[in-house]
Design brief:
This protein is α+β, with helices and mostly antiparallel strands. It is 36% helix and 21% strand. Helix 1 crosses helix 2. 21% of the residues are buried.
């Protein structure tokens, strides 16, 4: 167990977050784009004092194992990652405008589950890895 600290808190909070592309469109089929999206999400997380330990970018959704300080609620973490990545993705990949003319790439909702006694970080890492292997 690794305890992380900020100026006012010590914490070991981990979340499994997942969300899909709008209309479940399979827009991230290119492996190079998947790697770039993963790097973008890691950069955004780091900018906001969060850290992504494991990430799986699939054609139509994203899974990640994230730690964030207590001041950032899981809902806020998802909001930050989705909104900031949308702006960057539209700038970087002009072809996305052909799929999403409304300015949104991700669905409004998301899945979140915290790590605890009934779900370990290792189980989440294994699950994310299995999801990535299922992509054909």
């Amino acid at each position: 167990m690794t305890i992380t600290h900020t100026a006012h808190a010590r914490y070991d909070l981990w979340y499994h977050l997942a969300w899909a592309t709008k209309y479940r469109k399979q827009i991230f089929t290119d492996e190079k784009v998947q790697v770039e999206v993963a790097a973008l999400l890691r950069d955004i997380a780091a900018h906001y004092d969060m850290r992504i330990e494991e990430i799986g970018v699939l054609a139509d959704h994203v899974h990640l194992l994230l730690t964030a300080p207590p001041r950032i609620a899981p809902s806020r973490a998802a909001q930050i990652l989705k909104s900031v990545s949308t702006r960057h993705l539209f700038r970087q990949y002009r072809w996305l405008k052909n799929h999403y003319w409304g300015g949104e790439i991700w669905v409004a909702g998301y899945f979140v589950r915290s790590v605890g006694p009934s779900l370990t970080k290792e189980q989440i890492v294994s699950y994310i890895g299995a999801q990535s292997e299922d992509v054909s």
